[in-house]
Structure formats: structure tokens, C-alpha cells
Amino acid sequence: MFGNFDYDVIRRSLPYLFREGMTFTVTLTLLAMSGGIVLGTLLARVASAYVNLMRSVPLLLVIFWFYFLVPYIGGYVFHQLYRMNPDGIGAVLVDAFGFAVRDGTPIKVGAFGSSVITFTIFEAAYYCEIMRAGIQSISRGQVYAGYALGLNYWQTMGHIVLPQAFRNMLPVLLTQTIILFQDTSLVYVLSITDFLGAASKIAQRDGRLVEMYLFAALVYFVICFCGSYLVKRLQQKIAVIR
Amino acid sequence: MRPPRRILGSTPRSAPLNYNWNWKIFWDLSPTGDGTYLHTLLVGLVWTLATALCAWVIALLLGSVLGVLRTTPSKLAVKLGNAYVEFFRNIPLLVQMFLWYFVLPELVPTSIGDWIKQMPPPWGSFVPAVLCLGTFTAARVAEQVRAGIQSLSRGQGMAGTALGLTLPQTYRYVLLPMAFRIILPPLTSEFMNIIKNSSVALTIGLVELTAAARAMQEYSFQVFEAFTAATIIYLLVNVVVVFGMRFLERRVAVPGFIGHAVQAGGH
Q1: How far is residue A173's CA from residue B39's CA, in Å, rounded to a whole number?
Q2: A174: closest CA among A237, A111, A218?
Q3: Quick check: B265 and A106 CB within 8 A?
Q4: Which of B106, B203, B234 has the CB atom closest to A57's CB atom?
Q5: Which residues contact A115 (CB under 8 A, 6 or more apart)?
Q6: Residues A219, A224, A226, CA angle at the centre, nearest 5°?
Q7: Whose CB has fewer CB within 10 Å in chain A, the N or C terminal residue?
Q8: Which of the listed CATH numbers 3.90.79.10, 1.10.3720.10, 3.40.50.12780, 3.40.50.720 matches domain A20-195?
């Protein structure tokens, strides 16, 4: 069944797959991870409705939502900014996003921008849950001790609770990042050239679906398998320290 | 009754977001000729539920077997179970979908491959989608079942064998009835995941709920109405599942035990 397996198509497309595709996948993963952790930490104290909403609709639907919504919201927000100060920030925005800003029409965001925003906002809901569990794993006594020392709320959070919570949650955060890495493949539906998108384009162009998809699966498997192995090792290490 | 195409942005000002809302669109007929847009969405919902339920049967059966294998004394069985879980967890669902849909028919003998490729439209993508979601979720169910069995005290298994039960009997009458009760809450979230993940089947051409919303958006140009409706339907399905499972949990509860989730992310 592998008789006419064409290894050469994989070899030929390696530079494209990794330089274009994997770079995009990794960039998107890292941006969405950092954005998601920051936003998630902020949200960990507030919005359970937001978390529940994000967790009960499919990621694909969220991707479509933002792909269409971001240009409208961006256009609206930037238009308001433009009207406040047409010569200063308004001019900068017109330079960056075109006359749509002046007219208040939807701006062009591009697939990359909209997918970064989507994944940041979507993953924030998951990171938020992880952070909440992490914060709750720190005993209340430590918070009281912080207050007793005269620290205010933000100082207590920043110097006492969050450093420990991050350490407790590090393995889960990293596991979630591996899942995020896999999920970024869904930007395929916006015809973006991420790793899978690149593999898929070559597969369609050369009629080599079997080779390219198997190869893509192999690469994802190796990366995620090694990733989760490292997380497991890290977990054991941290467990010893605590 | 296809509404005339509006060029977005050239429309008269209507606040906010400069978008023409038209919530009556759901009662317009869709150009595909099989009813209103609302009907399109509901048919999509039926396919979502059908895919999710069929896949759930596979996931639950296969996942339970694998989960049990991973707790047996046999080293080989444990390795097999672990290998399965690692394999299906470390490849993105979308890639797995493509493997089932594009790659599998090429790797099996030609006659079977041709038979798969010639399946009539909804089934040609429905069957691979169900198999893909089922085997994918089985890995996650296996993880929960294993955790559930391991959360029982070792004494329970030993007591079973001490009573003269064989290993299968111990699992059937002692371990599994407790383990399944314990893992009901995490299984609920796996079931909701399978409903959400069924949307990935749109990439291989299954017109489930998300794809139906997308189709409605393409024909009617009412993007946000279509997506709002789909979102609300997903939320309603979630609510129904949560309440159903809560009812089930109360019905089968054994006093003194509560469910606990395995630490795992989701998407």
C-alpha cells in the first residue's frame, strides 16, 4: 500500500512547510498563549459568564465570528478615535487601516490579525479557568499574612499569590498550550497558510494527499508527544521542590 | 427569495457597527430551495446531534475497554492502551479528520477504497466524521475511565478477588459500577466536547450546525444573525445536556462519593 509512496514530494516541500507554515503556527501559538494568559489572569477574578460562553461554543464558530466581527468592531472603535482627534491619532489610523477609518466602514484586518485576536480571546477563557484554580490553590492564610504585613491587594497578588499560583499551574498551562498548538490547525478554514494549510496546499497542487497528510500528522505527533513528555518531567521536578 | 446583495459599508447609516440588522431573515426562504433559513439551521442541528451521538457510542464503548485495559495487571495491555491514547491525543482533530476522509480510502485495498469514495453525499462525510470523532474521544474517555478506576481504593479490587471473583467479574461487579459514577461529571464535559468538536466535520463537507450557519451567511449576507442563532442553539444544547446529566448523576448517586475531574485542558 506504500508502493507508490512519493517521499520526494515531502522532501521538496520541506522548506515551504516549515518556513511558511510552521512559522505561522508557532507564532500564532505563542502570541495567543501570552495574550491568553494575560487576559485570562485579569479575567480570573471577574467574568464567569464570559468563560461559560466561550467554553460552550465550538472553536470553529468562534473563528468565524471574529473573522467577520473584528473588521466591524475595529472600524467602529477606530472611527470613534478618528472623530475625537482627526489630525493626531486619526491620521495615524488612516495611514494604517485606510480611509475606512474616516468613513466608519469595516476595516481590513487580514486573516493573521483576526486569528491572533480569536485565539487570544478564546484561549483566555481556558487559561482563566486554570489561573482561577491556581489562585484558589493558595491558602487564604497567605493572603491574610500579606495584608497583615501591610501590603495592598495588588501587592499581595503580585508578590505572594501569583508567583506560587503560576508555579502550581505551570504544567497545566503548558498542557493547554500544547492543545492550543493543535487547535491552531483550525485556521485552515480561513485558508491561512499555517503548517496544515501549507501541507494541504501542496497536497492539492501535487495530488499527493496521502503523503502530505500523513507527514503533517507525523510532525504534529512528534512535537506534541515530546511536548507532553517534557511537561510530565517538569511536573515531577516541581513536585519535588514543593 | 434571494435578497439583493448589499455592499457592506455603502448602506445607509444604521448604528451601531454600521451593519444592517435583519432578524426576520430566519423566515426568508433559502435559495437552496428546501425551506426557510431557520429550517437550514435546524437540519444542521440534527446532523450535529446525530454525529455527536453516534460518535459518543463508539467513544464510550472503545474508551471504556481501553480505560480498563490500562488498569489491568497485564503490562502488554497497559502499553497498548497507552499507545492508543498517546496516538490520538497528540494529533490535531482536524488532521485526524483528513486522515479518515482523504488518506484511509487510499490505504485500504482498491475495491474497499472505491466503495468508501462512492458513498452518497451526506454519508460520505458523515461516516468518516463519526469514526474520527469516536476514536478521538475514546482516547479522552479512556483517560477518564482509568482515572476513575485508579481513584478507587486498592482494597476494592482485592476484596473482589478475595471473594473469589475472577478479574473480569471484579471489574464488572465491583470496580466499574463505582468508577462510572465517579467519572460522570468529566464524562459530561467530554460529551459536550464531542458536540462542539463535531463542527470540525464541516471541513470534510458535513453540513452540521456551524456549516449551516456559514451557508446561511453566504446566501443571505446576514453574518451576525446567522452566527448569533448558531451560538444560541449551541448554548441551549449545552444547557439541556448539563441538566440531563445532573439528573442522571442524582439518580445513580452513591452517598459519600463525588465526581472529580482529571486535570486536562480542552478546546
Answers
A1: 41
A2: A237
A3: no
A4: B234
A5: A28, A63, A67, A184, A187, A190, A192
A6: 100
A7: C
A8: 1.10.3720.10
Cross-chain Cβ contact A55/B92 below 8 Å: no
Contact A61 B9 (CB under 8 A): no
Chain A: nearest CA to B249, how far in angstroms?
Answer: 20
- Measured between beta carbons, the chain A residues lying within 8 angstroms of B223 are 68
**Residue B116: how many other CB atoms lie within 10 Å:** 17
Residues in contact with B161: Cβ distance below 8 Å, sequence separation at least 6, in sequence order: B167, B170
Element (DSSP H or E) covering residue B155? helix B154-162
Residue B94, number of CB atoms within 10 A of its CB:
27
A225 contact residues in B (CB cutoff 8 A): 86, 90
Chain A nearest CA to B15, separation (Å)? 10
Distance from CA of B215 to the nearest CA of A (A): 12
**Domain residue spans of chain B:** 31-252
A3, containing H or E segment: none
Measured CA to CA, the distance from residue B15 to residue A168 in angstroms comes to: 47
pLDDT tens for the 242 residues of chain A, in order:
566 777 788 888 888 888 888 888 888 888 888 888 888 777 766 667 778 888 889 999 999 998 888 888 888 888 888 887 777 777 777 777 777 777 777 888 878 888 888 899 888 888 888 888 888 888 888 889 999 999 998 899 889 888 888 888 888 889 999 999 999 999 999 888 899 999 999 998 888 888 899 999 999 999 999 999 999 888 888 765 55
Find the Cα–Cα–Cα–Cα dihedral B242, B248, B250, B253, rounded to 10°.
Answer: -130
Instruction: Examine the predicted complex and report whether its ipTM is higher than 0.85.
Output: no
Which residues does chain A have within 8 Å of residue B196's beta carbon, measured at their own beta carbons? Answer: 56-59
* Residue A109 near residue A78, CB atoms below 8 Å: no
Quote the minimal CA–CA distance from B166 to chain A in Å. Answer: 35
- Cα B39 to the center of its chain, rounded Å: 23
By Cβ distance, the residue of B91, B107, B264 closest to A217 is B91
The structure's pTM equals: 0.83
* Residue among B14, B157, B141, B31 at smallest CA distance from B84: B141
Fold of B31-252: MetI-like fold (1.10.3720)
In angstroms, what CA-CA distances link B87 with A1, A149, B75, B130? 21, 51, 18, 18
Which residue out of B6, B96, B199 would a mutagenesis test of the A interface target, given it has the greatest number of A Cβ atoms within 10 Å? B199
Give the cell for residue B211. 456549516
